[in-house]
Design brief:
about 375 residues; about 65% helix; about 0% strand; disordered N terminus
């Protein structure tokens, strides 16, 4: 995220996105709501530590750091921003814990509020620290050097980072939009005489379209064409590295390459060649192609006839199932959300370019 100007809405939008992530991870799976009958504010006065799980506490702390960071950048005053971040994060955390009382699978905890506020305070202090001010100068220079001017490019940088979060589940193929289920074969109706060919085409084409959409999304916001090759290579290498690290940390040894197979490799190879050809054209063509690839990739996901069983997929992992279900649900949520936000960003970029050219033509 870039340093905001006085009129920038980017920090507020990032804060709203983090709020959605917090709400999703706190209330998932949104079922079995009930009221225990105990006093509603009783959890605030539990003796500390009433409920302590190291992993949960670390997550409660970490997830509020970017939330506090974004909140602190909203006001013009640095210290007012820090105070606003702590108050808003505290109110968010209290609201979440209050609502969690009505979910039998959740535990309302005053300790969670303490960790949440501590994380938000850390993020807020980072946002106003001299080191961050110094770092922003370099980030601002890098952004101005590599990316086109305008607020759509600011959002594009954030969305590129967010896309990598959607790749954190190593059981999902890299750049994949569909997942082959584990276990017994599932019956489905194939429009082709060869059902396996139908599944191969969907899986390969889905990976191809996702690769095209993501890479063109990034390249259409670049300032100069000479950065295209480095940007494409860097993004692909980062995606591969992230999948390798996630697989090594989360998957059992026999499932280490679950995220990569021949179908995916075929689709990615074809997608890379198409990206190489499309990037020979201008920014407008790349933007339109990225938008079309986004729509087409979601169409592939919609017609994919098989459904992966979450319980079967969990058998690939070495972590505790409760945490994995939450992580998998969050990644899936962001994976469904990302194409829509990216599509809006691409449309905003086209409108921004049209207005810029229109304004330039009037001054002549």
């Amino acid at each position: 995220m870039l340093p905001p100007t006085s009129t920038s809405r980017l920090p507020a939008h990032v804060a709203l996105l983090m709020l959605a992530v917090i709400a999703f991870t706190s209330f998932y799976p949104f079922t079995d709501w009930s009221y225990s009958g105990r006093p509603l504010l009783e959890f605030l006065f539990y003796p500390l530590p009433y409920y302590f799980r190291l992993f949960d506490n670390v997550v409660n702390y970490l997830i509020y750091i970017p939330y506090g960071f974004a909140l602190a950048l909203m006001p013009r005053s640095r210290w007012l921003g820090c105070l606003w971040a702590i108050v808003a994060a505290g109110a968010t955390s209290f609201s979440v814990e209050f609502v969690q009382q009505f979910l039998p699978t959740r535990v309302a905890s005053n300790l969670d509020i303490a960790y949440n506020v501590a994380g938000a305070a850390t993020g807020a202090m980072l946002a106003i620290s001299p080191f961050t001010v110094w770092a922003w100068r370099h980030i601002r220079y890098w952004r101005a050097e590599w990316f086109a001017a305008g607020s759509p490019a600011d959002y594009a940088v954030v969305l590129i980072v967010l896309w990598f979060v959607t790749q954190l589940n190593p059981s999902v193929p890299i750049f994949g939009v569909v997942v082959r289920p584990i276990g017994l074969p599932q019956p489905f109706i194939s429009p082709l005489d060869d059902p396996m060919l139908f599944l191969f085409l969907l899986e390969a084409v889905g990976a191809m379209l996702n690769l095209i959409a993501f890479l063109l999304f990034a390249t259409c916001f670049l300032r100069h064409r000479r950065y295209t090759a480095r940007a494409v290579a860097g993004l692909i290498l980062l995606a591969l590295l992230l999948k390798l690290l996630a697989a090594g940390a989360l998957l059992k040894p026999f499932a280490f390459f679950e995220w990569f197979d021949q179908n995916v490799m075929t689709g990615l190879s074809a997608g890379f060649l198409l990206v190489w050809g499309i990037t020979r054209f201008g920014r407008k063509v790349q933007t339109v192609c990225a938008l079309l690839a986004l729509i087409a990739s979601q169409s592939v996901a919609a017609i994919w006839p098989l459904r992966a069983d979450s319980q079967d997929m969990l058998g690939l992992f070495r972590w505790g199932y409760g945490h994995l279900e939450n992580m998998g649900a969050l990644v899936e949520f962001l994976s469904h959300l990302w194409p829509w936000i990216a599509g809006v960003c691409l449309i905003a970029s086209l409108i921004h370019e049209w207005r810029r050219r229109g304004g330039a033509s009037k001054t002549k």
